[in-house]
Amino acid sequence: MALSDEQLERYSRHIILKEVGAKGQKKLLNAKVLIIGAGGLGAPAAMYLAAAGVGTIGIADADEVDLSNLQRQIIHATADVGKAKVLSAKETMNAMNPDVEVKTYRMFVDSSNIRELVRDYDFIIDGTDNFPAKFLINDACVLEGKPFSHAGIIRFKGQLMTYVPGQGPCYRCVFKNPPPKDAVPTCKQAGVIGAMGGVIGSLQAMEAVKYIIGVGDLLTGYLLTYDALKMEFHKVKLPADTHNCAVCGDHPTILEPIDYEQKICEDK
Amino acid sequence: MIIPGNDRRWEMDMKITVSGEVKEVKDGLTLPELIEQENVETPEYVTVSINEEFVESAAKESTVLKDGDVVEFLYFMGGGR
Asked: Which residue of B has its CA nearest to A130?
């Protein structure tokens, strides 16, 4: 389908890029991205993907907007406090760009629904705030053969990596199993600088856009870390050996996503 | 003739790269010693790679670093919402 005059105008700064062009823009308009967690990471990721004209954006989150979210979750406004995050996020995205169909999933993701959820999408963004959810998303994406962007943020630090089936290690290759509850501090306990979600969530959106258009090098096989206080990015090359991984290795022992004890933690 | 103990070369430092930064450390530095020097937070939950290979948890205690090693600490980061 040809781009309308309005779309040619709206996406002109994309279309003028030789790496994107009308062809790349059409790929974006036909793409489906799922964002799990409508918070610090999910908010900027959702907004940039909506602005970019990603045709279908799914957003999953069970929570309502809380006053303490607004320091970083820029997709929600003061008037949204108490509203379901997925609805607040949908309203913002629709207001930004009517080209985008936003699908909302107001629920906790767990082993019973995650595989079916990711199956409908081309790329998944992990914007969750706890390890059980991060491992759940990793395992579901590996099992369903879906690419995804992992990210984590805390205090003045952030990290991300991209998994593409067959092109490098998954999150579990690196981190094996979730740490025990409270062994590693959460944002609620330790705090996080608001703009960190903006930096790392935007990088996740960038990975999704590059994957969809098919340009450049993704963060497959690397973990990118960002230290805001030192103002340093560090790209760590990950071990290439994935043979022994419990989910993506040669002899996987994890054949279904796992619900670890620690449930989705409150970030209120 | 080189007599071990008398030759200063036996006490020479070695250079390793830790999180992208080249550091001079004492010869024979162990991984637990490096973890202490670097003030690694919650070391029992940190994944370590040396020369792009994971160090198995069971081998962390006994790992001795060599000149030229490239060490990375990969931290759990759970926040996001």
From this structure: B78
